[in-house]
Automatic annotation (TrEMBL):
HAMAP family linked: CobQ
UniProt organism field: Streptomyces seoulensis
Name of the protein in its database record: Cobyric acid synthase
Family (UniProt): Belongs to the CobB/CobQ family. CobQ subfamily.
Source species taxonomy: Bacteria, Bacillati, Actinomycetota, Actinomycetes, Kitasatosporales
CobB/CobQ-like glutamine amidotransferase domain sequence ranges: 262-431
Gene: cobQ
Amino acid sequence: MSGGLLVAGTTSDAGKSVVTAGICRWLVRQGVKVAPFKGQNMSLNSFVTREGAEIGRAQAMQAQACRVEPTALMNPVLLKPGGERSSQVVLLGKPVGELSARGYHGGRQQALLGTVLECLEELRGTYDAVICEGAGSPAEINLRRTDIVNMGVARGAGLPVLVVGDIDRGGVFASFFGTVALLSPEDQALVAGFLVNKFRGDVTLLEPGLDMLRGLTGRHTYGVLPFRHGLGIDEEDGLRVSLRGTVRESAVAPPHGEDVLRVAVCAVPLMSNFTDVDALAAEPGVVVRFVDRPEELADADLVVVPGTRGTVRALQWLRERGLAKALARRAAEGRPVLGICGGFQLLGEHIEDDVESRAGQVPGLGLLPVRVRFHPEKTLARPAGEALGEPVEGYEIHHGVAEVLGGTPFLDGCRTGQVWGTHWHGSLESDGFRRAFLREVAAASGRRFVPAPDTSFAALREEQLDLLGDLIEHHADTDALRRLIESGAPAGLPFIPPGAPA
């Protein structure tokens, strides 16, 4: 096989990331050497590659689906929102500055198209197939002129386009038709067809609609994927986390011991890498929920203060909501608190920030003997070490540099009593360390909780990726999909003028 494909979507959250991962896993199981690609990603969930480059976590997950090591080529442009109107621009894994949305779309973005296409071309020269993920919708006509992730990439690289629609939201036929109709003739010529995602029920009831859609558009539907719980692995957007919901819960598996452990995650503004708690939620008998009120910490055995792209803003938010006082009470009572990255920084004595918020020196929560100073250069690293007698690996992404003045060393941070802080993302994915940490939490909380001795987070992730591959293999027209990847969009696809059915 030799070729490529762009997986676009009718909307954000249509399922592009997981469909891309599923196609990648299906192909690699067929013996195809495949790589993922996303020209531009907007996400607060990121990852550090072995060469020290920062990319979106979704592309790191897709690389795992391909059973290859992630690289900066797979996500050349990463935007990390710092508020409503500006983002940090990460180019080929390194930050190059902050830009407003107007400044970025006003000229900077189009200048990056050449870099994006060069990265894609390099991947295509190395792999049998490259499965590209789009962003948002290709029919965002106000942004088409500067597009470097949807039809701009498809046109530049001659890729066929598969449009994914989330039928669980309703209106999927209108979304499919409208997406194609809003595109130019040149863009429409690359849209080969559709893939229905998250279908519930009897697929035969859907088939008349699919036949009508083909009649209206002249395009094939490449599959109907059934709804499956628990497939939202490594979501891109840390700004839309459902508070007080079951965003991350492992309530299915009974505890290995007599008790469950309850973990409350403070849903701070601009929360980043909230995927850090996935490994906790994967542990039998551990229930994880996101919270934003002090009373929701009362029954928690562990409170996690996660990473954030706005440390000083998160600190203010914790104080305004009364969560800062609740955390201080927990610390005084010897009840466990874990701060990760930005969450670690705000647990310290003070923060000197002339980089991220430009707020100067700001008092922290004072729960750890740490002083933080923000540096213009970002730390991007893949550290490894030992904690609680167990090997640990992680990754670091931060501007703040911590000066640890006391306490007990803990990874690169420290602990005082039952307050723990580290810059290491992903440390809880190290199984032995996670179990040792949970035993400490259980002891401090007086719980008869025993971590399951055989839970492997890596194995669970592999199972999820195989399930995604199964969805493609069993519910997509894989023969047609393979032809599409190898040969491109069929010739002579009809142009649909906007409003044609009327």
